[in-house]
Amino acid sequence: MMNEMNFVFVVLHYCAPEMTAECIDSIRKRIIYGSYRIVIVDNASPDDSGIALQERYSGCADVHVLLNETNEGFARGNNAGYRYAVENLHPDFLIAINNDVLMLQPDFLARIESIYYERNFHVLGPDILNPDGERRNPHRIRNFTKKDLHRMEPDDDPALSPNEAASPFGKPNPFCRGLGFSKGRKRKERDRAGSSAGRRGSPRELPDLLP
Question: Residue range 88-113: average pLDDT?
Fold first, then answer.
């Protein structure tokens, strides 16, 4: 019998309390399988909406609200949530999810777990579709070359700060910038887009996961 996996959703928040609450409530309402917690990271919202969220979910053992003292930006803001989750909640999987996402798949966690046992992935992404069903999955035009990989190594890149060069778990992560984790930009599109699920390392309407 397989052991039950533990999941943690990390949700970065800034000045949009109702949007964030809709996201959190959709997770808590829709997920019918699995053990999970939710970490909300308030990125020093000047409207005190982080405090309001902290009060709103104060009686919910499955929701943790962190209040950053300064706005750390997208990547470091998320990293604060990842670090807290790993050090305090000990998840098997971390799920990065934007606060403008609504959870629609009741079996979302079950599918992640099933795919993990099939493929033993390290990072899993969704199948991104726009409303008319067209796939919008990002892809690289060409494969990484040895030169690309060498350029992304933190020891050889003085522009890469120690925080960017290390993963939230304290281990070197030479691909963090190349894979888009050191600098992030909130998507303007509100079509169906995605989240990322990471196995102890690392959903707009949530699309189906990759088959």
Answer: 93
